[in-house]
Amino acid sequence: MSSGVRNGLLLCGETVVPSLFPFMIISDFLVRSGASDGIGRLLSPVTEKFFRLPGCSACAIFMSLIGGFPVGAKMISQLCESGALSQSQGKRMIRFCVNSGPAFVIGAVGASMLSDKKCGIILFVSQTVTALIIGFLSRFGKKESFQRTDNVHKYVTPSAFTESVASSTEAMLNICAWILLFSSLIPFLTKLAKLNSAFSILVVLSEVTGGCSYAANNLPLFFLAPVLCWSGFAVHMQLLPYLKKIGISLPDFWLSRIANCALSLPIAFLLFRLFPCEAQVFSSFSEITVKPYSVSVPASVAMLLLGAFTIMDINLARDKKV
């Protein structure tokens, strides 16, 4: 288990925190500052027609696709708390806004585990297409009358960015704690799987990085798509505070994950048939190290935006003192 904890610390320090923390701050700031409202007014024709959701959902949907979990879930819970989304709208969104970011899918899974970024791109596309299809299908559910409140404007304060950093730091500590816990279990579960293949499912279901590594070594490539869509119990535990605020139960959330897995499998199968690639699996869970910004343009952009927001927040604080 000690080796698992070391691997977890390495994963958090070299991949999770650098690639996820900027997105956590930016997504939080978009809601607190009211910027998501402004962007939403521009994109509302798209979100209302395609997803039957208000424009403010556009930022959460986009960030869930490029930021990785639990960025989307965190934004949805904030929008529900602020009154910008109804509870039923939040529940619908959480069913397709929990996705792995491109840094992990293309970098960690594609480049590191499969030694082929093309495989990672195919898996990322299959996950994205799956999420958008489920989001589109969700629009045909029961219609509701909902009058949004103006509570969202309560977040517009000069210290919005400072509050976003504090909130995101707390969220990152929660994320890293769950990663370390499940990382410590992966070596033990992997040994059990070698003794009895029945334990393989526990490896795949428990933690997404270890699950993808195991699947890459033991299953056809397209089976990695449902592993990514399931995302692992470690991620589900990270999402619990947000699921509670949104008002969706864990069994309901698991059903939505199963639906994502079932749809992603044939999509990934077709994409790998159309764009064949021969992966050379060489990395184990303990060998996975990713340089986040060398493989993730969105993460690099997020860092630049983070710097800009910092400067803005400092200037606002100075103006307030004057």
Explain how this protein is built:
It contains 15 helices and no strands. Residues 151-155 and 289-295 have low confidence and may be disordered. It is mainly α. Helix 3 packs antiparallel against helix 4 (71-82) and helix 8 (160-195) runs antiparallel to helix 9 (200-206).
Shape: globular
Beta-strand fraction estimate: under 5%
Helical content (DSSP H or I, runs of 4+):
over 70%
Q: Average pLDDT, to the nearest integer?
A: 82
Task: List segments where confidence is low: pLDDT < 50 over at least 5 consecutive residues.
Answer: 151-155, 289-295
Q: Quick one: how many beta strands?
A: 0
Which helices and strands, and how do they pair?
Blueprint: H1 2-32, H2 35-50, H3 57-66, H4 71-82, H5 87-94, H6 102-113, H7 117-137, H8 160-195, H9 200-206, H10 208-218, H11 224-230, H12 232-246, H13 250-274, H14 292-295, H15 297-321
Helix pairs in contact: 1-4, 1-8, 1-15, 2-3, 3-4, 4-5, 4-12, 6-7, 7-11, 7-13, 8-9, 8-12, 9-10, 10-11, 11-13
